[in-house]
Amino acid sequence: MISATIIARNVRHRPARSLLTIFGVAVGIAAVVTLVGAARGFERGWLKAYELRGTDLVITKVSSRSPMPELFDERMKDDLLRWPGVREAAGAYVDLVSVSDKSNLFVYGWELNSFLWRHLKLREGRWPAGDEERSAVLGEMAAEILGARVGDVVPLDMYELKVCGIFESPAMVENGAMILSLPLLQKATGNPGKIRHINLRLADGSGAAEFASVRAAVKARFPGFQAYTANELMRNNSGLRMVKAMTAVTSTIAVVVGALGVMNTMLMSVFERTQEIGILLAVGWRRRRVMWLILLESVALCGVGGALGSLLGVGGGRLLQQVPQIRGMIDFAWDTRLFAAAMAVAVGVGLLGGLYPAWRGSRLAPAEAMRHE
Question: What is the pLDDT of residue 265?
Answer without folding.
Answer: 78
